[in-house]
Amino acid sequence: MAKDLGLDRSALSNRRARIGSDGTDERYCDINLNNGELIVADRIDRERLCGEKASCILKHELVLENPLELHRISLHIQDINDNSPQFKEEFINMEIRESADKGARFVLEEAHDADAGQNSVQQYSLKKNDNFILAVDGNSIELVLEKELDREKQQEINLLLTALDGGSPQRSGTVVIHVTVLDANDNAPVFSQAVYKASLPENSPVDTVVVTVSATDADEGVNGDVTYEFGHVTEDVKKIFSIDRKVADINDNPPVFEEQSYSAYVTENNKPGSTLCSVTARDPDWRQNGTVIYSLLPGEVNGAPVSSYLSVNGDTGVIHAVRTFDYEQFRSFKVHVMARDNGSPPLSSNVTVSVFISDVNDNSPQILYPAPEGNSFMTELVPKAAHGGSLVSKVIAVDADSGQNAWLSYHIVKSTDPGLFTIGLHSGEIRTRRDISESDSMKQNLIVSVKDNGQPSLSATCSLYLLISDNLAEVPELKDISYDEKNSKLTSYLIIALVSVSTFFLTFIIIILAVRFCRRRKPRLLFDGAVAIPSAYLPPNYADVDGTGTLRSAYNYDAYLTTGSRTSDFKFVSSYNDNTLPADQTLRKSPSDFAEVFGDCDSSPEVGTQPISLHSCSSS
Asked: Domain check: are 455 and 537 in the same one?
């Protein structure tokens, strides 16, 4: 941008260059003030912004100040092949009469691809089959009958139609076309025998059964109902013999399935009890001999009884799912259905039913590298001399789903410096957008989101910690490289702990002060500036007259403390000797005066709750 405008790179910062959007709140590009390059600021989805328009243009403005200048920027967004062709429905149901002529055409609905140009739908293909081919003319798709249908051979036909785009890599979408062949009266009744022979005595009474004939018709419904009458016989014969239309039947025909095999398609996570398909077998015998009952033959699917997966309605042949299927566990399996009549002895036949499970987007992407947050702490080193486009790291992820549900895309949703790193949409490769500069922060944090292409899309996120450094010695403690959210939580816990301890300490101090205050409020004996301790009571006029104590002469024991003191070690004594200071004089003297009188003592007298003796500092 700076080169195109003829500006020096430093002028971009000085003139506060910035990108503004033209009439919208979203801004998809930005300008790098260091090198003057225009960079992508947010993910651009062409299909969301421009739909199916052939041209997609985003308009922005470059704003410069001092003086004010506006430069219009038009971004032409080019399409990439990030969408697959999709049909409106997963299954297309069609009904075609078996009497349809060869070359008959049946219109199909086209597929849709959100991409544009060459990345949109370019061609269709039909899986090879015996009856149909595909005719494509522009946007018109037709199913063409190449070989006549025969309902009696195949009542239902499943076709697989695929739509392909022209992108690289090429993407595709499929749909199953289920064709039901309707019956036409194209089959004549057929007798069980070409010639019936019978012997009859001449004296046989009227209503004697001569012979039983049987004919069947392969058609369906009224087209398959059979009635009997005489043909090519004389009137005399008609007078002797008649046809009883309630012919007695023997069980000589087993049930026959309308198809040689059946296929059922079901999406995973189906509801138990949902219908998968139906099988039909017909028995041309009469009444109970022609009544068909359906059942599953014993077998196993993945080590479990087949009855734990499927059930069949014994009267209708409708097959139901007993459990929910998981595409990731198994994608297809086969079961055998038996059709049995009620004759004696009963006759039966079997048919194979193949169940195909289709995938749905029920698995989120699994990130293999870097390891999920909380399991390990991973840091990538980025050289300071790394140039723009240098490979820094790579996010590796997989998806257990299949097809487009497993196609992954990678996006940076949060980063320390949004303009420094980019990630490959489909490769997951993290590269530098520009050269590393001295002003870039040493610690770079990235949050990467991995999304699949399912509907709805599922995603997973991971964190990468990048350290811009050339020397391992420069690497700080790895524990410092974490997101502000974690640091803020740890700080909060420390503050709470500190407040709790401080509160407890202050409470303790207040209690101690309160106890001391209460003790000072106790009654005291005040006398001329001294306090007598009531608890340390000594009998008045107590004298050591025998000289057996520690005092050399008789002393009168009275204990006093200075005002306000509770720890003084001074005990003042009164003596009957003239050299001893009177008590009233002692109480009025200062500590220095006491020192002059008593001199230096080897040990301090103590006040206690029991009577004690004192050593005199001078001889009497």
From this structure: no
